Amino acid sequence: MTAAQTPRQQVPGQHVSGQQVSGQQAPTEARTWHTVPADAVCAELGVDPAVGLTAAEVAERRARYGPNALAEERTERPWQAFLRQYRDLMQLVLVGAAVVSIIALGDVTTGVVVLALTVLNALMGLHQEGKAAQSVAALREMLVMTATVRRDGRQEQVPAEELVPGDVVGFEAGSKIPADGRLLVAASLEIEEAGLTGESTPVAKGVEPVAADDAPLGDRVDMAYMNSQVTRGRGEMVVTATGMTTEVGRISGMLSGVEQDKSPLTRQLDRITVIITIMAAIALVVVVVLGLARGEDFDSLFVVGISLAIAAIPTGLPAVVTMLLSLGTRQLADEGAIVKRLKSVETLGSTSAICSDKTGTLTLNQMTARRLVLAGRRFSVDGEGYSTTGRILAAAGSSEVPLEPVALPMALASDAVVRDGECLGDPTEGALVVLAAKAGLDVEETRREHPRVAEVPFDTEYKLMATFHEIDGAVRSYVKGAPDVLLARSTRYLTADGGTAPLDDDARALVVRENDALAGEGMRVLAVARRDVSHADLQGDLLGLAQDLELLALVGIVDPPRREARDAIAECKDAGIRVRMITGDHVTTAAAIAGQLGIEGRSLTGAEFAAMSDAQLEAEVGSIGVVARVAPEDKVRLVDVLKRQGEVVAMTGDGVNDAPALARADIGVAMGITGTEVTKDAAEMILTDDNFATIVKAVEGGRGLYDNLMKYIRFQMVVLIGFILTFVGAGIFTIAAGTPLTPLQILWINFAIDVLLAIGLGFDAASPGLMRRRPRPPSQPVIGRALGVRLAVGGVLIAVGTLVAVAWGEDRYDLPVATTMGLTAMSLLHVVAALEWRDPRASILSFDTLANGRFVVLLLSSLGLTFLVTTLDGLERIFGTVSLDGEQWGVCALVALAFLVLVELGKLVLRHVSPQPSADAHVAAAGLPGA
């Protein structure tokens, strides 16, 4: 209640009387405090609630239990973060190649360049992680929580971090609970615990113990928990747990035991690296064996084989992947998603299952009145959240019903203040205030004209609130509360024409049916009533005046789904992504919201879910769409089950109770505005707009990124095969002494030519139908058998073309000319390969080839660099090239043209033999996993 609403009479809140206790110490073992009477809790903690702890006791307990703060995650040192970048398998292969180049070949320059490239890759990854960390820090609220505590018989304000078990702490509406505690006083006390339990509505609290030892957190109504918000009334508690022993601390501690798996992209790139390494090793053995068979020296053969192995390693792959992912994270940041780790961007594109929290993620976390029932008539209410924009709609043909008599108790018998779309106070009261405004009342003016003269605060014992106002010279009582309570206290009801009728058995049965119908839709139902009394009555028992009431209306209230969430879930369904709702709310409410959102599957309670064996859960998880009243460990269990079934799992949430599951999922997504700091720390991605629809945008972005990355992978593999076969062929046919390209020339092609082509492919326009494809199973191969054959044929053509150019130049000129022609021919062949393998089916002889201006510019840049490396003196000295004449350029161009013609003929045959695949099958045809 606000200070402006005095004087008044109040029904006393529940409390525990003080008693002198001495000689006790706070226990160190965990206790089920909610089952213990409040006075026994104080006795066990060694505190008199009327006096509090002494300064000496506080000092002793602080030394024993430590500060009331969560353990901070150990900060990763810069050198540790740098070395973590070398856990990537390709980075390790590059380091190995550099070491071999320096030691075995004596080629220090090449080795140093390759090592420098690994450092560049690592620095690019660290740079993006640093930017993400800065964004997360900008979201963090730098607030120091204080607590009102009674010590040595005096009230004082202390930092919450200084609280100890046994402290007696007071709080009121608007306060945050600074620690876990057993309630001693609960005067009209309601606490919002959504961040801990997931329950959308505040919990009415009391001091009577809860009998069940295993009662869920949301049902422990005699306890208050750290970081929860007081929405109504006032309370007092004795602290039972601080720091890491609180429920928040326990959940935070679970994060340290959660192992994080590699992302699907990391696993796929590791497979590619293994394939490449095996191919290089086989080629090395082939070159050495063939050379020995011809009687050549082993040492020289080994040098050639090592040069081949270095040529086979795509040194640009990590740099290109890092660059693509880094730019992808910037694009997502513009859409409202901050990604902490680069490879998490692609993981979203692989997602096949999303386990989403309900409150604040799929819903607004703003209680909203949706139904109004009066005189047997139903009205629907539109609008969202705490915005007063909206209408109260009746069925067509219904006579007009005056709404002011119904709206007055909603405005006057509520303490919440709604202003500019924000609610200060109890969210359920906020919904009633908004409904009164939609009914046409100016709530603030109405409250000024009809101030309270007395009130009965809400209490869980009698489940109602009554206020008394002077209206037209009389005193009128407005009452709101539980429908069953007000129905029992009412004798008449308001009719549609504004009159009054007796509340007979038929009318009572109708009220019960309407109440059950609203509750069945997952709504929280409140009733409003009124009664006129005399001034003299205010001197007596105010609660006793809440009898002989005139029942006015029933109101159905719900935390509504986000408008965009339903469309986002429908898009997920089209994309083959299964969305499940995982919430701490009641199962009826959760099921109703799931139905409105289009989430399919049956609804279970947390107890039913926990009772299922692993085998049963494995068999039935596909039929489960909603799990309600769920514990944090059960969320983690669900994620584990889905991952064992081959799903790539994304988990979204905002509360502390979501954090362990976010850390365990393939991609954890936290809410940036309403999310707790523990949740943000556990997540891989943070939504700055708290919008579920942003996840769908991120999924589409991830799929587009992977699709373009596969364009580069196809290109990279075909030129890799060409590299290997070029060296193998040179060794077999003794072309250019078995070394058609020097190591530095190989690096030039990899970085000056291929990186530009890779950027063009990586930022190509997204292929059509991305969100109509099925998700990629992580177990499917990166390169399927059919695609592998086609890539091998393309590699053979590149090798043949390069060797023809080198042999022609060696036969007619000298070795420098031959290797320069080899460098030029291979560069041109790579440009053609980028064009052709951009789409493995479509012809490049179309307007679409030139539609992407960036790709065309990069293509021309590669051609320009190919020309410059054979004309500029500085580049010629570095890379061992010479200038080519027109005839030599003509041979290189003819080789590239022949390659283009042969590939186009192959595509033409493929299009005639194999029909164009559908959107779902396009994955295979495009060379994605499973092709």
**Per DSSP, what share of the residues sits in E-state strands of 2 or more residues?**
15-25%
Give the CA-CA distance, first to last residue. 67 Å
Gyration radius from CA atoms, angstroms: 36 Å
Helix content percent band: 40-55%
Computed structural class: alpha+beta
| Count of helical stretches | 31
Q: What shape does the CA trace take?
A: elongated
Report on the biggest sheet.
Answer: 10 strands, mixed
- Mean pLDDT across residues: 83
Poorly predicted residue ranges: 1-29, 135-143, 917-931
- The counted number of beta strands is 28
Blueprint (SSEs and pairs):
Layout: E1 14-15, H1 38-45, H2 55-65, H3 78-84, H4 89-103, H5 108-139, E2 146-151, E3 154-159, E4 168-172, E5 180-192, H6 194-197, E6 203-204, E7 223-224, E8 229-241, H7 247-254, H8 264-293, H9 298-312, H10 317-335, E9 337-339, H11 344-350, E10 353-356, E11 368-374, E12 377-381, E13 392-393, H12 404-412, E14 417-419, E15 422-424, H13 427-438, H14 443-449, E16 452-456, E17 464-471, E18 474-481, H15 483-489, E19 490-494, E20 500-502, H16 505-520, E21 524-533, E22 549-558, H17 563-574, E23 578-582, H18 587-597, E24 602-605, H19 606-611, H20 614-620, E25 624-628, H21 632-644, E26 649-653, H22 659-664, E27 667-671, H23 677-682, E28 685-687, H24 692-732, H25 743-762, H26 785-812, H27 815-837, H28 853-868, H29 873-879, H30 886-913, H31 922-925
Parallel strand pairs: 10-23, 10-26, 19-22, 23-25, 24-25, 26-27, 27-28
Antiparallel strand pairs: 1-5, 2-3, 2-4, 4-8, 5-6, 5-7, 5-8, 9-28, 11-12, 11-22, 12-13, 14-15, 16-17, 17-18, 18-21, 19-20, 21-22
Helix pairs in contact: 4-5, 4-9, 5-10, 8-9, 8-24, 9-24, 10-24, 10-25, 11-24, 12-13, 17-24, 24-25, 24-26, 24-27, 25-27, 25-28, 26-27, 26-30, 27-28, 27-30
